[in-house]
Amino acid sequence: MSTLPPANPKASSSSSPPATGADGARARRILSSKLYSDVPSSKVPLVYSPSYDIAFLGIEKLHPFDSSKWGRICQFLISEGALVKSRIVEPLEASKEDLLVVHSESYLNSLKSSARVAMIVEVPPVALLPNCLVDQKVLRPFRKQVGGTILAAKLAKERGWAINVGGGFHHCSADQGGGFCAYADISLCIHFAFARLNISRVMIIDLDAHQGNGHEIDFSHDRRVYILDMFNPQIYPFDYEARKYIDQKVEVMSGTSTTAYLKKLDEALEVAARAFDPELVVYNAGTDILEGDPLGRLKITPDGITSRDEKVFQFARERSIPIVMVTSGGYMKSSARVVADSIVNLSKKCLIDMETPSARA
C-alpha cells in the first residue's frame, strides 16, 4: 500500500527563498537572456542541435557514454518518418550570464582548468589538452544542451510538451560538477520557468538509474520544487546528504526487473499525484536503466522503457500539466534506438503531437 513520503528538511522552509541582492541579480540575468527565443508554429517542440554531439580525436570513446547518442536519436526519428529535420528546434548556446543564474563565478572559473573538466567528464586524458580546445569541444556542446533544456520549458508551456534530445545533467549543482555533468541544466530550466513563465510549482520526476544529487542540492530548501527520484542506491553518486532533500525517494536495487520496476513507478506516481500539484513537470528520462547497461545495473527491457515514458507522459496529460523531457544517462549504443522508439510510441499514443499545424491542415 502506498503511503506519503516522510517529512524532509524542505518541510520547515518557506514556500520560496527570501528576496536578496543575489535574487535580484538572478532575475535580471533571466529577464535579459536570449535563450527564450520565439519558435514558429512550423516547428515541433523537439529541441536538438548538431552541436550537442561530442567528437574530439576519439578521446570521447574513453568514457562509456555514447557522446553521439543525441544525433543518432534524431537520425532514427527522421529515417522512420516520425520527424522532419527542418521542423527540429535548434537552441542557442547558454552564455556565461545565463549560467550565472545558478552557478557561482568560482565554479565557472574552475572549468578553465582542463584537469577539473577531466574529473567531471571522467576522461583523464582531457587534463592534458589546452583549455581552449576543451571548452570548444567538450563544454560548448554541454552549453548548447543547457540552452535546449531551458528553451524546452518555454515550448512545453506553449504546446503542452517538449523534448530536449539532450540535457539531464542531474549530477551538477551550483558549485559542483561530476558524473559527466558540467552544468546544472535542470536547475537553470526551473529558475527560468519561475521568472518568465508564471510558474510557481515544479515537479522533477527523475527516472535515471542514478540519484539526481545535483538538483536535490540546488532545491534543498525550496518548497516550490517537488522531487520524485527513483534510483539505484548501490551505484554512483552515493550522495547521502542530497538524499535528505528528496521529497519522494524510491530505491530500485541492482537487478530489478521490468515488471517490478513498472509496479514501483505506478505506485510512486499515485503518491506524487496526492502529494503535490505542479504547474510543470521536468522528466529526467535516463535510459541507463536498460538491461546490460554497465553503470545502471538494472534489468529493464526496451519495451519497459517505452512503458515507463508513456506512464510519465500520461501522468502529465491527465492533469493537463506541461512536461519537459530530457534524455540524461544511457551508456550503451542501443540507447539511441530505445529513446527514438519511445518517442515514436508517445506520438502513436497521442501523448505528444509530432505534426505541425500546417501538416495537419
CATH homologous superfamily label: Histone deacetylase domain
**What is the gyration radius calculated from CA atoms?**
19 Å
Q: List the helices and strands in order.
A: HEHHHHHEHEHEHEHEHEHH
Overall spatial form: globular
CATH architecture: 3-Layer(aba) Sandwich
Can you list the strand order of the major beta sheet?
Answer: 1-2-7-6-3-4-5
CATH topology, what is it called?
A: Arginase, Chain A
Strand content: 5-15%
| Overall pLDDT | 92
What's the total number of strands?
7
**Straight-line N-to-C gap:** 48 Å
**Structural class estimated from helices and strands:** alpha/beta
Helix proportion range: 40-55%
Number of helices: 13
Largest sheet geometry: 7 strands, parallel
Specify the CATH class: Alpha Beta
* Number of separate domains: 1
Please mark out the parts with pLDDT under 50 across 5 or more consecutive residues, or reply none: 1-7
